[in-house]
Amino acid sequence: MSLEAEEMSVVDHLTELRRRIIYVLVVFVAGLVAGLFVAKPIYLYLIHADMAQGFVLHAFSFWDGIGMYVKIAMAVSLAVSVPFVVYQLWAFISPGLRPVERSAALRYVPYVFVLFILGIAFAYYIVFPMALSFTITITRSMGLEETYGIAQYFSFMFSLVIPLALLFELPLVVMFLTKLRILNPLRLRKMRRYAYFALVFIAVVITPPDFISDFLVTIPLLILYEFSVFLSSFVYRKQLAMDRELEARYVRKEESR
């Protein structure tokens, strides 16, 4: 390939990448606008939930109310955008994939949204109430007077819910990379200790500074990793069987000549 042709290829790829990024930004902005219309009913649901009862939430600045609507709208937009981002990523790299890999990878895209919603549900209904209850117990045991701001309440919630929802995509990412033959179960088992350390570190970072919250987040992340290894093994076995079948077909074709 000539230098000019190679430069054209790089320019074409960068142009394609820019186009995909623009598509993602357009969808994110559209989701943000749509999220503003549903922000109020979501907000009312969240503040009337059981875990929010007993709190008198205050606004400490003129922007707190608007800020809550924007944060909720961004969360809605993220839920809509994540599957679209994955699809755009697939569309960008799909020309370099074989037809079988291309069709298999495309089937993963709808599950991105499902896992994201499952992650939100797990974080909001299980992890968040326990973390909230623990922090409140510590505050009251210290004899402190509780005065909570609406911004602090939702920031605490989103700092738990959003990262966990994104981490729930781990099994799908591992399956996709295994399908591309970038990862395999042998490599995942070999790097298990490093993966565990990284997941524990993530759990400690995204949760309040207490052992209970860290434990409640760490255990599901480790289970997700082991589940990812299992799924990778499943995909890898199918790949090995397909490779043996192709090899046997090639041998039979050579013997028939």
Oligomer: single chain
Give the low-pLDDT segments: 1-8
User: What sequence of helices (H) and strands (E) makes up the elements?
Assistant: HEHHHEHHHHH
**C-alpha Rg (nearest Å):** 23 Å
The computed structural class is mainly alpha
Tally the helices. Answer: 9
* Tertiary shape: globular
Describe the structure.
- The chain has one domain (10-248).
- It is built from 9 helices and 2 strands.
- It has helices at 3-47, 64-93, 99-106, 109-141, 150-167, 170-179, 185-190, 192-206, 211-255; strands at residues 57-58, 148-149.
- Strands 1-2 form a two-stranded parallel sheet.
- The protein is globular, with a radius of gyration of 23 Å.
- The model is unreliable at 1-8 (pLDDT under 50).
List the helices and strands and how they pair.
Elements: H1 3-47, E1 57-58, H2 64-93, H3 99-106, H4 109-141, E2 148-149, H5 150-167, H6 170-179, H7 185-190, H8 192-206, H9 211-255
Parallel strand pairs: 1-2
Helix pairs in contact: 1-2, 2-4, 2-5, 4-5, 4-9, 6-9, 8-9
Defining key terms:
257 residues, single chain, two-stranded parallel ribbon, 82% helix, 9 helices, mainly alpha
Summarize the structure.
The protein is mainly alpha-helical and 257 residues long.
